Amino acid sequence: MFSLILPLFISLLAATAVAILVFTIIRAVSGAQNRQTIAAMPKYTLRDHSTPEQLAEVDEAVDTSLFLSIGQRLLNARYRAWLVNKLQIAGQRGNVALAALLTKKVTYAIVGAMFGALFLSKGLAMGIAVILTGAVAGFFVADLLVISDGQNREQEMDLAMPDAIDLLNLCVESGLSFEAGIARVSVSLNGPVAEEFGALLSEMQLGKSRVEAMNELADRTRSKGMQQFLSALLQVDRLGVPISGVLAEQASEMRSKRKDKAREQGQKVTIKILMPLMLCFLPAMFVVVLGPAIYQLIQTMALL
Questions:
Q1: Which H helix or E strand runs over 257?
Q2: Where in the chain is the domain with CATH 1.20.81?
């Protein structure tokens, strides 16, 4: 009887896991479409002018999910702070981003556990071990995805910094103030640099000083180009040096570093392609070149 029920149970778990995975992919695709629509809208919203009650309603709107409630119970304060930091590096801020991450973590854990249940037919002990391993791996795979997004965002920021600083320098030299130049750059450009400049301007509009806002921006980003730029601006505020010359020098230096990094990546191609060449191309070439000779040698040895 158990041998008849077990395959049905495993098939049901596999079908449920596939359904959850398909549902997650569909939500991710629809979320990407929504992000594209939001990215096409103006970068300034009325969020800064909303009341605390309205912001609380928005933040609490996502607290109805069962998976989110489970994820919140599995967090401690230290792990939660670490997740918030990684989300900020990836450009995702607020309770909504944290809630979405917790929902993904629990969803991936359930999917991993259900796929691990397929090994119950190999034995109860092995099945339970694989279920636990799949659940733990699925729970933490979302963290790896967020870290990867943060690293990609840092690279995009480093590549876009010279152009953003050039535009900011042009705005300052044309007579605009630093805040107005930051606003123009955040509206005219797209990408992580424009987003961070918009957040910097919003914090200054909320009453923070320029130094405080730039220090907070330096804390939430790991981009070397952005940190170098912010360090130069802090020195300008401290020493009273004209900002236009510093911006031009920073843009030129970052552009030189970008060229050097491109040359470095180009020189690494020959080394990176060596292993695929040895594993894929050379064996096939040896078979084509040496195959007929080995065949003739075998036939000659057989005649002897």
A1: helix 243-272
A2: 156-270
